[in-house]
Design brief:
- The chain is an alpha/beta fold.
- It has 2 domains: about 160 residues, HAD superfamily/HAD-like (Rossmann fold, 3-Layer(aba) Sandwich), CATH 3.40.50.1000; about 60 residues, DNA polymerase, domain 1.
- The strands form 2 sheets. The chain has a 6-stranded parallel beta sheet with strand order 5-4-1-6-7-8.
- Strand 4, helix 6 and strand 5 form a beta-alpha-beta unit.
- Helix 1 packs across helix 4 and helix 3 packs across helix 4.
- The two termini are about 20 Å apart.
Length: about 240
């Protein structure tokens, strides 16, 4: 099997929550709206943030302390989604340097894609409200397929949508789900320290590199591209 480090980066796939945006406030507001509407106690934003990363139903199951098969979650999820769609970016803000990083990655000639466990309708609402929906060549969101991160399916599906071999993708994310997804799919992965994930948590998942902020990403992509070019140049001809 070809190592991803033998192939030049061909596209960059970003996680959304925690990586490109800080959405803790809006997620917490939607969760607490659903909990209170169901006669349950609200939770602190920090507690809710610790449960983020595996999709809305899993998030609500953790917050309500219910198994994911419990039918009560259908009601909670409907309330959560209705509220979130009406308030997609009341408190959401960009991660440090994120808009500029998207520009710089595009200047490197690399297509940009999005891979998130956030539900498709909410993802679309957030991106549209931020005015960046058209920035992404392809999107894989929660519910778009039978698998979600950390399973490899989302990245494998994106590689087909982008017309890129999986070894040419670079996954960029702040959660263990992102890193494991990339590892299982067979592509490079950059771990980002974020408001959701401290450095120790990111490093423990063993990405290829850990960065403190997204602003470090373009230089890493450039170095990987240069290193691959040099490697190809010195290979003996068959």
């Amino acid at each position: 099997m070809v190592s991803p480090f033998q192939v030049a980066p061909g596209a960059v796939v970003f996680d959304l929550d925690g990586t490109l945006i800080d959405s803790r406030g809006d997620i917490a507001a939607a969760v607490n709206h659903a909990l209170l509407a169901d006669g349950r106690k609200a939770l602190t934003p920090s507690v809710i943030a610790s449960f983020v990363g595996d999709g809305s139903r899993t998030l609500l199951a953790r917050c309500a302390r219910l198994p994911e098969t419990d039918e009560t979650l259908d009601r909670l999820l409907e309330s959560f989604t209705e509220y979130y769609l009406a308030h997609p970016i009341d408190f959401t803000k960009w991660a440090e340097g994120a808009p500029d990083v998207l520009d710089r990655v595009a200047e490197l000639g690399l297509p940009i894609a999005l891979c998130t466990n956030k539900a498709r309708d909410i993802t679309e609402a957030v991106l549209s409200s931020l005015g960046v929906r058209t920035r992404f060549r392809a999107i894989f969101a929660g519910g778009d397929g039978p698998e979600k991160k950390p399973a490899p399916g989302p990245l494998l599906a994106l590689s087909k949508k982008l017309g890129q071999d999986i070894t040419g993708l670079v996954m960029v994310g702040d959660g263990p789900q992102d890193i494991e997804c990339a590892r299982r799919a067979g592509c490079r992965v950059v771990g980002v320290v974020s408001t959701y994930s401290a450095r120790d948590r990111v490093a423990l998942a063993q990405p290829d590199v850990v960065i403190e902020t997204l602003t470090e990403l373009p230089e890493i992509l450039r170095r990987w591209g240069d290193a691959t070019t040099r490697l190809q140049a010195i290979r003996p001809r068959s």
